[in-house]
Structure formats: structure tokens, C-alpha cells
């Protein structure tokens, strides 16, 4: 239990910096809560005065006392006081609610921004080991769980504590014996709450984890929906989703059911105490030591003690989900970031594009991928990287861009170790076109201009012409102003690839990386694109990863990778003359193509 309290304290300590800027509004909201609870606590005692006054007047009239009557003016004055109390309660609740809502939502706004900014600073390896759906769940569902808990439970926890203190003080001022009996509700309720929370907390953590798993599964299933239909895997997909859904249902049921037991158990304790106190109170009235109005007020105070306990039990599910979500949020905020070894804006000089790999080695965990890799690429050279799947082709590019850092050796750009360069400065030297295209929801013009946000319209059009996509854009109803939808499904895959190439051209980098950039275009477009890319790559250093070996025949240097090592190196003619692994790859593609024809 002590460990859990310490963990909760640690989570709240991490949340404190996000609430600190809005401390004044939180203070005002707490002050308004104090006024509201003070009014609520005073009301039963004053209402009891009306009952006592009426009971006394009726008793005097029944006994035939001289001048006996109902003192309406006294009752009127008490009602006016009650009206003032209720108005003060209402106004304080409105003002307090406004200040609390504003401060909490601003704090959650800052928390979301911090998570988003953190994601931008995380290394690529984090996304290689965590599903996008789970990351999305942390940014959306978990932050929303914290927001709801703070919004609803903050005021109720404070008001509950104040209500307990003031209600008990009022009860002890009325009758100490009855107050002691009523006080037993609190420890009994605390024991019930503690027992249920201890049992259910693990289920709430499992519920949030299952929710993250579901988001990951949904993201995977929906993004691969066409492939699922193509391979007839609907049944397998349904079973996969049902398994995740069943896990979420199981943990959610246990968590919610266990937490729902608090309210009826605490209410049972309250009803039993009211029964005992009603009997004691009646004897006290008959003995003349207690007025009817005070007994009425006392029972009202019992319910005021019960209400906070019931509210906590009702909020326990939300509070526990919030702490589980908070833990997941701060797990991502505590992740190690990409560390910079040099300040921004300190490039070694005008980029030439010379790249040197010196004894580079790299492993994914315990799995070695690159071993003692050595090669020098001169400025303006076109280097093709070929080899079977898993040979390390894409890993080399990831190391060059510092998505990962080398385990051994070093990579130099223009004679400078890239680990001594700011990542943003390093990556500004590169343009990249991937096999998997990425376009955002927006106009075609904006998607191309993403490569250089300061580019003029004529520069965007020139880049589109160089990528041989200008004519296609002009045939569209709105031309460059056509909006690409969120899924990018209103243009073909090949057209999307051409747009990403135009975007890379617009950046005008010194070093260009093409990772199967022509794999999604047809043969006619590939030839047009190859001609354009020859112009684009002229004077630039370029790295081309290709499986179609016919597209790299003109490369200045071809690196043939096999099991993380350079198996062969040279130009197309020299490698073919060696009659080695490259020759086998090339001839196998040629033979396959000839058979197909």
C-alpha cells in the first residue's frame, strides 16, 4: 500500500508542472468550493431551526399557553437567511466550476502539446518497438482519462474532505454520542474503499493496456484492409480483433464491477447507522436533551458524510483509469530522446556531398546487421546499393541519416563525423524518396511545397515538370488546388510516388536518397522518370536502393551487400565481368523477364 501511495505521489508530482501556470485559477476554484461547502453545511442546521420553531409553537398552542401562536416572522427571517445561503452556494459553484474547467483544460492542452513535442524528439527505434496504435492511445485516450478525472474528481475530492470535516463538527456540536456512532461510517467506508481499490487497480492498468492493444490492432487491420480482402483473411482478422476485444471486455468488466461494489456497501453502512441514530435520537427528544430540528439536521449531516464516500466510490473507476493513463503518458515523456552533440546552424561549410564509411558496424539488439563496412563516395557520384532482403541496404541509409547511430566505426560527410553534427543540419543536406509514399491531407500544391515551404509557385511547378507529374496535375479538375483526401485514395499509387519525387526535387538537396523510388510507376513513366532523375542527380551525390537492376546500370559505383558486408563493388560492366553474385542477380532478373515476355 505504501508503495502505491508513493507511486501516486510521484505521478502527481510529474503532473504538477502542467498545473502550476494556472495555480491562481485553481486557488480561486478551491476558495469557491470552500464557500459552497460552508453554505451547504450550514443549511441543515438552519433548516432544523424552522422545524424546532414550528414544533415549539405547536406545543405551546396545544398546552393552551397564553399568547401561543406560530411565529411566522421568525420563520420568514430564517427563510431569508436560507435564501442568501443557497444563492451564495449557487454563485460560488458557478464561479468555481468556470475557474476549475478553464485551468484543467489549459493544463491538458499543455500536456498534449508536451506529448506531441516529445514524440518529435523520440528516436526511430521507439516506433520500431511500439505500435502506432498504442502511441495514439497514449496521446488521446490516456490524456482524456486524466482530463476527465481531474475535471470531475478534483472539486469533488476537495469538497468531500471539507464536507466531512464540517459535517462532523456540526454533528459533534449537536450530540457527541450520536456523532461517535456516525463517525464509524468513515473508517468502515475507508476499509471498503481500500480493499476494493487494491483488488481493482491491476485490472484498470490491464484495461488501459488492452485499450492500447485494441487501437494498435484497429490501426493495423484498417490500414491493411485491401490486403486482408485480397488474401481472404477476413476470418483471421475477425478472430484477431475478437481476441483483443475479449481481453478488453474481460479486464473492463472486472475493473468496473469491482469499483461499483463500493457505493452499495458504503450506503448499507450509512443506512444501518441512521437506524441506530434515529432510535437514540428519539429517546434523547423524549428526555428533552435534543430538539426535533436538531435530529432532522443530524440525519441530514449523516447523508452529507455519506455523499463524499459515495462520490469517491463512484469516481474510483475514473480515478484509477486516470492514474493508469497517467503512468502510460509519463512513460512516453520519460523515454530517452535523440541527444544532440552540436548546436544547430553550425554546418562545417557549403555541402559538397562526400560520404565516407569507416569500419562501420551496427546491430539491432543482439542481431548484427552491418559488419566492418568501408567505402568512400565522392561528391557527385551515383551509388547503387543492391542485395537480397535483410542484407542491410535500408540500415545503411538509416545510419547515414542518424535515425540510428553506429555501434562501431564512423560515418563522415565532407570529412566531418556525422555524430558531431546537429541532426537537423545533417538531414537538411539530404533529399529522400521512399518506396512507401507519404502525403498529408491537403492540396497537391501544399504536398509538393512541403519540401521547401519558402518555394514560389513557379518553383513548385518546375519541380513537378522535372518529375513528369505536371501534365497529370493539369488534367485534374482543380489542378494544383485539388485536395488529396486523408487516405490519399483519390490518386493512384504511382501518381503519389511522382508527387513525393517532385517534393524531394523542390528541396534541392546536395545528397539524394532513392529507396525503390520507381517501384510504383509503370514502365513508360519509369523511363520518363529515369530521364528526369538523371538531370536531377547530375552534380549531386546520390544513393539508390534498387531491386530492378536495369535502373542502376549507369551508376558510378554499385555496392553489392550480402549479410551486412560488401560482397562486391564496382560499376555494372566490371561486376558483370566478374561473373559473381551481382551477375547472378542481374541475369536472374533478365531471364525472368525474358520468360515472361
From TrEMBL:
Its main location: membrane. InterPro entries: AAA+_ATPase (IPR003593), ABC1_TM_dom (IPR011527), ABC1_TM_sf (IPR036640), ABC_transporter-like_ATP-bd (IPR003439), ABC_transporter-like_CS (IPR017871), P-loop_NTPase (IPR027417), Type_1_exporter (IPR039421). SUPFAM superfamilies: ABC transporter transmembrane region (SSF90123), P-loop containing nucleoside triphosphate hydrolases (SSF52540). It is a multi-pass membrane protein. Pfam families: ABC_membrane, ABC_tran. One of its GO terms (molecular function) is ATP binding. Keywords: ATP-binding, Cell membrane, Membrane, Nucleotide-binding, Transmembrane, Transmembrane helix, Transport. The keyword Nucleotide-binding applies. Signal peptide: none annotated. Residues 355-588 form the ABC transporter domain. It is found in: Cell membrane. It comes from the Bacteria. One of its GO terms (biological process) is oligopeptide export from mitochondrion. The keyword Ribosomal protein does not apply. Residues 27-321 form the ABC transmembrane type-1 domain. One of its GO terms (cellular component) is plasma membrane. The chain crosses the membrane at residues 21-43, 154-172, 178-197, 268-290. This is ATP-binding cassette subfamily B multidrug efflux pump.
